[in-house]
Fold this protein.
Amino acid sequence: MSGLLAAMLEATGPTLFHYVLVPLIKIAIVLFAGVLPLIMYLVLAERKVLGFMQARVGPNRVGLWGLLQPIADVMKLLVKEDVVPRRAVRWAFVLGPCLVVAPAFVIFSVIPFGPPAATEGGISWFVTDINVALLMVLALATLPVYGIILGGWGSNSKFSLLGGLRSAAQMISYEVPQGFALVGPLLLAGTMSLVGIVEAQRDLGMWFIVPQFVAFFVFLVAGVAESNRNPFDLPEAESELVAGFHTEYTGIRFALFFLGEYANMIVVSSVAVTLFLGGWLRPFPSVEALSFLDLSFLPAGLGGVVWFSLKLFVFLFVYIWFRGTFPRYRFDQLMALGWKWMIPLALVNLFLTGLVKVWV
Amino acid sequence: MAPTVTVPTPLPEKFPEGTVVEQEGMDQPTWVVQREVLKDLALELRDGPETQFDLMLDLCGTDYPERDQRFEAVYHLYSLPRGERLRLKVPVTEDVPTLPSLIDVWKACDWFEREAWDMFGLRFDGHPNLRRILTHEAFQGHPLRKDYDPARRWILTEDKIYRPHPQPPEGEDDDDIFERMTINIGPSHPAMHGTFRVVATLDGETIVASEVEIGYLHRCFEKMAETHTWQQVIPYTDRLNYCSSFINNVAYCKTVETMLGIEAPPRAVWARTILSEFSRIMDHCVANGSTLVDAGALTNFWYMFQPREEIYGLLEACSGARLTVSYGRIGGLSADLPPDFEARCRRLLEIIPPFIDDVDGLIAKNRIWLDRSVGVAAISGEEAVNWGWTGPCLRASGVGYDVRKAHPYDLYDTVDWEVPIFHGGDVHDRYRVRMAEIRQSLSIIRQLLDRGMPEGPVIVDDPHIALPSKEACYNQMESMIYHFKLIMDGIQVPPGERYSMVEGANGELGFYIVSDGGGKPYRVKVRPPCFPMMSTFSRLIEGGTVSDAVVSLGGLNVIAGELER
C-alpha cells in the first residue's frame, strides 16, 4: 500500500499528488466504500432493529439474515420504470432528488473520520480540513429543502405539494435552533474547522457534550427534524399524505430521495459526533489511565476511526429507536415546539456560553 | 328477546284516530304510523318525558308488492334512559313514496334516509342531500325492491359519477378563498382503512368543509340474503365486520333462533360467549392499532396485531378458517370445539395481556400521543346519541350503553364485569375505552373458563334445523332426506318479523329479519353500528387539520364491509 502511494508520488510530483490525486482517491473511498454501503446497510439495520422492536423478524429471505436484501432492493429500484407524470414540471421533478442527495454527499468532505496525519505529508482521515467547515456544513445542510420543495411542487400533485410545504416550513424552523446550537461548541473551540473543534475537545480534556449539553439536545432534536425522521416525519407522513413530497416518484428518482434521507441522517450524526462527542477521541480523553482505549496498536490512527464509527452507530441507532417509539407530531405542534421551545432554549444556552467565555 | 315493559300509549289528542295504531303480536312494541303525523310523533317520542326515545337505531325500507301501500319505512327507536324499544312502521304507496325527513329530530336519519331512497326509492321531504349512497350514481332502479332482478348487471361509467363539492362556510372574506385547496382523501389512501373517500376543502392544513363518499364496497348483502336459504346467509354475515366475523354469525343466528323459538345448547352458548369476546378483543386491537399507526406510532400496530394473530389460531382450530369463520350455525355451532380448546384459551389469556400492557406503557403517558389525541374529534354524549352512535365510541363520550349489560344475552348476565366509561368523547378516550374493554373481555373469558366447559352437543337436536352427521346421512334414509330438504329448501322459519341485537365490537349490531314462512328470508336488514358513526365523520373533522382527521378515523372503527354491506 505505502509502496504504491510512494510510486504514485514519484510519478505525479508532490503538488498533483497531495492536492488532486489523494483527495480524489479519498472521495472515492468515502463514497463507495464508506457512505453508500453504510446507507444500504443502514436501511437493512433499520428494518432489522425495527423488526426486533416490533415483535417480528424483519427481512430474512435474501441471503443469510437478509444480508443481501439491500443489494436486491438497489437492483429493483434501478430497473424499475421511471415515471414522470404527464403534467409534472419536468425540470423541477428531475432536479428535486438531485438537490437532496448532492449536498449531503458534499458535507462528507469536511467530516474528520479520524485524526489528521501524524507526520508532515502523511495521509489524514478526512478529505479536507478547511477553516470555514462549520459554515459550509450549515450552508449545505440547508440545500435539501429546495430539492424537496421543487420535487413536491414539480410533481403537480396535491399531496406532494402539501408534503413539500410542510417540509419547507419545518426545515426552515429547525434550521434556526440548529444553527444556534452549533455556535456553542464554536465559541468554546474558537475555530470553525471541524478538525480544530475536535482538537479543542482534546485540549479541554472533555467532550463538548458536557459543557454544551443543552446545545447538544437542541441539535439532536433539530437534527431529527432536519432529516425528516420520526417523530418529525410529517413531510412524508404515509398515513396522511400518502408519501408526501415523493408520492409521484418511482424507481431511481425515488431511490435518490431515499438515499438523501439516510445520507442526511448520517451527516447530522457525524456532525453531532464531531462537535459534541469528541469526534475520533476516546472517552475521557484527559484520563491517562484509560489511554489503552486509544487502540494505538492499530496502524495509522485507525483507532480514532473505530471510535468515530462507534459513536456514529450509537446515533444512528437512536434514530431508529425514535422511529420505533414515538408517534408523529401534528404540524402546528411541531412549529410550536420549534419556535417556542427550541429557539429560546438555544438562545439562552448561547447567551450563557458567551458569558462564560467572556468572564472565565 | 322482547322487552318486558310495554311502551305506554300516550297518543295525545293531536294525533287523529287511526293515524297511530299499535300492531299486536310483535316481538317489540310496534306502531303503524301515517306519514302525515310522523314528524310530530317523532318529536313527541324524542322529547316526551314518558317516552325519551333519544336513539334512532335503524331506518330501513321493506317491500310488500301485494299490499296497497306497498312500501314500509321501519324505524327502530331506543330509549337510553328507560331501556325500551319501539318500532315505527310508516306505510307508503308506490305512487307517492314520500315521507317527511326526520333529520331535524335525529341526525342519524341523514344517511339512513339516503340508504332507504337508494334501495327502495322512498323519498324523504326536507332531506338536504337525498341522493344515492351505496350504489353508483348512474345506477337505475332501486335494488331492494322485490321486482328488481338480483341477477341484473350494469355497466356504470366514469362520466356519470357524482362529483362531491363540499360547501365551505359562507360569509368569510373572499381573499381567503384562493388559498383553499380541495383534496381527495381516498378511496385509495393509506389512512382510509377500507375504501372511503373524503373530499376535503383545505385552508392551509385546516379542513373547512368536507364530504364523505361511501359505497365502494357495496355488495348487496341484503339482496343476496333474500336469494339464499337461511343457512346460506351465514357466510355473508362474516363479511360484514370482518374484523370480528364471529360476532356477526352469532347476531344473525340468534335472531333466526328466536324466530324459530329454539335455543342453542349450553355448550354452544358457552363457546359463543367466549369466542365473541375473543373476537371483540381482536376488533379492538385492530381499531387501536390502526389509530396508533395513523398517528405514526408504528410499533404499537404490531403489538396490537400480535394478539389478533394468536386468536386467529384459536378460531382456525375451531372452524378451519381464520378471518371469515362462518362458525355459527342456526341452533348452535358448525362443529364441536377442538379437544384442546380450554388449554388454547388459557394460553391466550396469558399471552394477550403483556401486549396490551406494553402498548399502554409505551403510549399512555407519551406527550406527543396525548397532544395528538386529547380533545381531537371530540363529540359530546348527547350529540353522539342524536347521531345514532352506540358501542365503545359512545361509551367514550360518557354514555354507558352496552347491549351486554342493558339486554343481556348468552352468558353475560352470569359473569361479573363492568362497562368502562370515559367522558372525553375524543380520540384518546376512544382508545382508552377499547383498552379497558379488552381487559374486561379477558376477565369474562377467564370466568367462563373457570366455570368449565358444559358437556353435550353444540347444535340443537332437531333434524329440521341442524344437518345430520355425515355418517348418518350416508347410512340412514331419514337422515339423507332431512339433509336433502335442508340443503334444497332450507330451514322453514315461521312468518313474522324480529329485531334482535348483540353488542358488536363497534356498537349495537342488530338484525331486523322478516320471514314469510319460506326457506329464504323475506327481508334481512342489518343495523350496522359504524354506519351512523361514519355519517358523523364530516362533523368530526371539520375545523381540525388533516392529521386530526386521519387519526380520528381508526378510532371510529369503521369497517367498510359492514358500512356498505
In short: The radius of gyration of chain A is 21 Å. Residues 14-53 of chain A form the longest helix (40 residues). The CA atoms of residues 37 and 300 of chain A lie 23 Å apart. Chain A is about 65% helix and 0% strand.
